[in-house]
Structures are given as structure tokens and as C-alpha cells.
Write a structure and sequence with these properties.
Number of strands: 7
CATH superfamily: NAD(P)-binding Rossmann-like Domain
Strand content: 15-25%
Helix content: 40-55%
Distance between the termini: 47 Å
Order of helices and strands: HEHEHEHEHEHEHHHE
Largest sheet: 7 strands, parallel
Strand order of the largest sheet: 3-2-1-4-5-6-7
């Protein structure tokens, strides 16, 4: 039995590496940082809520943290510019989907909905060029739910459709830094709770009974994929679905 234990033991895969998580105070970002720490990485967290961010940083033993809105370009540039290098991996989880009929959105709302994903990712990509080590990763977030065209999804479907090609194009331009896109469905996070409110429990139960995996996807599931994408250096320019089969059921 002892020999078997020795054979199955493995070394942590991110020792000596630095992982930066934009939106790391809760949910997927927090869980990814926690898993990266377990693999030996140093982590740097950002978030808008200073109190929640401080608690997360203390819990994880983060190397550093900074409270700001990632969509504030000046703050983002200052943060990434001041980070001591080199950096190995950057995960962007900041931002939330925008729902509602397209024709009811004014120009500013539409611009904000797009910039919260595509423009933010582009700005991060510009700023990490030359800062992230060759073979490191820029990880972006999208979703599978927005692939449907349905009333109320509005601009979310358009942004979702654009993200895979956007990530693939960035992978070519940022090489040898790798760029990949993670596309979850419903994930049981504080953001989901805020979006659904009193409907959260009903949504959980619906997914438990309809998803092929017969359970709800959690932040730890997505974090496991994110860390795998960091450690497998053959992966770039691709989109990875993680929704428990949600896109295949009504």
C-alpha cells in the first residue's frame, strides 16, 4: 500500500508561477485562485468590493490584492503596470451578462454591455503583452446559455457568438502567450444568486432533474478546468464548454 501511495503522489503543477485573477473575490475567480494556490502558485486578486476582496485575499494567502473596477481603464493600466513580473497566467472573470430586448437598450447601455466583455478582454491582452511569460495563459470567460437566440437575451447572444473568434484571434496575436475561452452554463455562484433572487432554488432543482450530470455545476468545476488550461501548454485558441450538458436539454 505504501508503494502505491508513492506511485500516485504527484508534484504541484504551478510551483513558482504567478496567477492574476481579475474578479477573484468570489465565485469562479475565487475558486480558481484557491485551486492555483493548492498547485503551488502565488496569486494576485482584484475585485470591486474592497471588504470582500480583503477577506478572500486573507483566506487564500494571496501575494497581493487590489480593489478597483476592471472596466476603469486607468485603474486597470495602473494595476497591471505596477505588478512586479513576470506573470504566468491571467484569468478575467470580471463583468456580468446584460439581458433585455435590443431595441430597448440605449447607446450607452449597449456600449457598456459590449465593453464589459470584449473591450475589457482586449485591454487586458494589450497590457499583458510582454508581461506574461511565453507559454503562459490569458483565460477569458463566456457562456453556453447565450448561444440561444431568444427574447430577453438581446446583446448577450451577440457577444457570446463573437467571443470564440475573438479569443482565437488573440491567441495568434499574443503567441507564444496562450489564449483560451471558458464557456460555462449556469454556475452556482453569488452572481447567479443576485441575478435570480427568489428563483434561485427553483433553478437549482430544475437543473438537478434535467442536466445529464444530474447535479448543478459549481465554481470548483470551472476552476478545475481553468487550472488545467494553465498547466497544459498545448492548448490555445479554443473554447471549452463546461455546463453539465445544459445546452443539450430544454
Amino acid at each position: 500500500m505504501r508503494d502505491a501511495a508513492v506511485l500516485t503522489r504527484r508534484e504541484p503543477e504551478l510551483v513558482g508561477q504567478t496567477v492574476v485573477v481579475l474578479g477573484g473575490s468570489a465565485g469562479i475567480g475565487y475558486e480558481t485562485a484557491r485551486r492555483a494556490r493548492g498547485e503551488g502558485a502565488e496569486v494576485v486578486l482584484t475585485g470591486r468590493d474592497a471588504g470582500r476582496l480583503e477577506r478572500a485575499a486573507n483566506e487564500l494567502g494571496a501575494r497581493d490584492s487590489a480593489a478597483f473596477d476592471a472596466n476603469d481603464v486607468a485603474s486597470l493600466r495602473r494595476f497591471l503596470g505596477d505588478l512586479p513580473g513576470p506573470i504566468d497566467h491571467v484569468l478575467v472573470t470580471a463583468g456580468a451578462p446584460t439581458y433585455g430586448p435590443l431595441l430597448e437598450m440605449d447607446r450607452d447601455e449597449a456600449r457598456e454591455a459590449i465593453s464589459g466583455h470584449l473591450v475589457l478582454a482586449l485591454e487586458v491582452a494589450r497590457l499583458i503583452r510582454g508581461r506574461v511569460r511565453p507559454g503562459g495563459t490569458l483565460l477569458l470567460m463566456s457562456g453556453t446559455g447565450g448561444r440561444r437566440i431568444a427574447p430577453g437575451l438581446g446583446i448577450t447572444s451577440a457577444v457570446t457568438a463573437a467571443m470564440p473568434a475573438f479569443a482565437a484571434s488573440l491567441a495568434l496575436e499574443l503567441a507564444p502567450i496562450r489564449v483560451n475561452l471558458i464557456a460555462p452554463g449556469f454556475v452556482d455562484t453569488p452572481l447567479s444568486a443576485a441575478l435570480l433572487g427568489d428563483g434561485l432554488d427553483a433553478r437549482r432543482e430544475q437543473l438537478r432533474t434535467t442536466l445529464p450530470i444530474r447535479r448543478v455545476v459549481g465554481p470548483a468545476d470551472v476552476a478545475a478546468l481553468a487550472v488545467h488550461l494553465m498547466t497544459n501548454t498545448a492548448l490555445t485558441g479554443a473554447t471549452y464548454d463546461i455546463d453539465g450538458g445544459q445546452q443539450f436539454v430544454a
